[in-house]
Amino acid sequence: MRVFTSLVCFLFFQAVQSQILDKSWRDIITNSSAEWYASAEAREIAENVLLYQRDIGGWPKNIQMQEVLSTKEKQELRELQSTAKGVTTDNGATFQEMLFLSKIHEQQPDERYRVAFLKALDYLLEAQYPNGGWPQFYPLKKGYATHITYNDDSMVNILNVLKEVKDNSGYYSIQPPKETLERVKKAFDKGVSCILQTQYVQDGILTGWCAQHDEVTLEPAMGRAYELPSLSGKESAKIVLLLMSIENPSIAVMESVASAHAWLQRVKIEGLREVRTYDDEGKVINKVIVQDEEAPTLWARFMELENNRPFFCDRDGIKKYSLDEIGAERRNGYGWYTDEPKEVLKTYDRWVKAHDVIEKLKAKTAAPKDPFNVTVAKDGTGDYSSIQDAINNAKSFPYERITITIKNGIYKEKVRIYEWNTHINLIGESKEQTIITFDDYFDKMAIGRNSTFHTPTLSIDADDVLVKNLTIENSAGEVGQAVALAINSNRVAIVNCNLLGNQDTVYASGNGKQYFKDCFIEGTTDFIFGNSTAFFENCEIHSKKDSYITAASTGEMADFGFVFKNCKLTAAENVDEVYLGRPWRIYAQTVFTDSDMGDHILPVGWDNWSKPEAEKTAFYAEYKNRGKGFAPERRVSWSKQLKKSQAKKYNLKNILGEHKKSSKKEWYETL
User: Fold this and answer.
1) How many angstroms separate the CA atoms of 205 and 274, rounded?
2) Is 356 noted as a catalytic residue in this protein?
3) pTM, whole model, 2 decimals?
C-alpha cells in the first residue's frame, strides 16, 4: 500500500511538472496562482532563478527558468554568476524574474529572494543613462544595443517596475530601503523626462516614439538591419499608457499624451486584416494582408519619420511598402502590425476627464506672470515647454528686454526670432545640456536653388538679440547644405555657445553687426559664411573635414567682413588640408589676428574659388597669428600680412561700435 501511495504521488508530481513545462516562463510568472507560489515546485524553480542571476543583478533573456537543470548545468551557472554575460532587460528579462521573486517571497518569505530582488533593482538604477534612458544591454555591448531602447517595451517595463516601487502600490512584496527608494524616485522622473525629450517632432508637431533613440543625440536610431529609424505604433502605445498612469501628470506629460493620442488617431489603419496560416505545431508559416472592411483597427510597427507611411524591411535593409515583398523568414517571423494602441484610445477620454486635461492645457496658454522674464522647460515646469511658443507670445518691439530662460533639455524644434521680436535674450541653463536641434537640409527642403536658406535650426531676424549658453545644432549629418544658425539682423551677440553642423553651419548675413564670443563652431565646408560684419573673439573653430572654413560674401562698400581675434583653429583626426577661406562673392573680407592655427591649415591659406578676379577684389589678411598652421611666407601672394599700424583698426569698438568718438556704452558691453 505504501508503495502504491508513493507511486501515485510520484505520478501526480510528474503530471504537474509536465503542465508547468508546457507553459512558457512568462505564463508561469503571470498566470500562476498564489497557491502555486506557495508550493514546493515554485521553490524549486526559484532556485533556478537565483542560479541564473548574475552578480551584477540582472538576468539573460529567453531562458525557460522552469526547466530542470542537471548538476553540470548548475555548476556552469555558478561559474557564470561573476560575469555579466548576456545580462539585459530585452524580451522581458530581469523585470520578469523580479516579479517572480516578489510573488514567491510573498508566499514563502526567504531572505535570498529579497536580496536578489534588491540586487536587480540596483542593477536597473545603475544601467540608466544620465539623460534618463536605458540601453538594451548593460554592461554596454557594441552596436545598436547601446541605444535608448523602447523596443519590445524594454524601457517601459523598467519604468513600470520603478513606478510600482516608488508608489509603494503593493504590487511588489519587497520594498527597498529609504536610500534606494530615493534613487528610484529620481530614476523614474529622469526616465519620464527622457520620454518627453525623445517624442518625435514632425513638421513642428509632437507625434510618437521610435523603437530606438540615439543615447547621445536622442535622435531616431537604427536597430537591426530590418529595423530602420522609424515611428513605431507598437512601442508608442505602451509609452503613452505609462504616461497616463502617472498620478499627477505635469503639463508636459499632458501635452505629450494628447499629441501622441492625436497622432495614433491619424495613423490608424482601417479595412486591412492580417491573415495567418499555421502548421500542425502552431507555428506561423505564412502571413498575408487582405482587404476587409470589418477588420479591427491596426497600426504599423514601422512608419516613415517624414510622413507616417507604413513600410517593411527584410534583412537587406531595403524599405518596401508591401508586406508581400518581404521574404518568408522575416514576413512570417516578425510582428509588422499591432493593435496595442487600441488601449490608448479606449482609456484616453477617461484619462482626460480624470485629470481635467483640456482646462489645464487651456490655462497653460495664458500669459505668464512676468512677460519680460519667462522660462522654457521640457518637463512643463516653466511658462512654456517650447522655445518657439515663448517667442511667439513675446511682446513685439518691446521697450524693455525680454529674457527667455531655457532649462536643460534637448529641444527638437526649428526656432525663429522674427523681426518684431527685438530685444530678446535667449539664455540656456548650460551650454552642454541645453540643446536646440533640428535636421533640415537642402535636399530635404527641396524647394529650389535657395533651399539652403530654409534649413536653419535657429534663425534670427530681429535686432538686439542675445543668445547665450546654448548648443545650436543641425543634426542632418553630411548631406550637403544644412544651417544650424542664421543671423540676418543687427546687434546680435552669440556668447558661450556650441554651434554644431557640417556644411554651412553658421550663416552670418545681413547688413548688421554680429558678435560671436567664447563659442565653439564646427563644420566641414564653408561652415562660416555670409555677408555680415561679424567679430569672432576667443572662439574655437573646428574643422571636421579637409575643406574651407569661411565663405564670406562681403558687400563692395563694407568696411569689414569676418574678423577672428584670439581664436583657436582645431581639426578632427586625419584632417590636414584646410583653407582659411574662399570668396563666395568677389569682395569677400576675412581677417585672422592673434589666433592659434593648427597644422591642418594649408600653407597657402586661401583659395580663390576658381575666380581669378577675386584675387584683386577680395581682402584676406592676417596679423600676429601663431601655431604650426601659420606660414606667412607661404601664403598666396594676393593675401595680406598686416603691419601693426594697419592691424590697429581691427578692434572690437572700431568694428562693432556705434559710438566710436564718445564714451557712451556700446551695445555689446551690456552682455
Assistant:
1) 30
2) no
3) 0.74
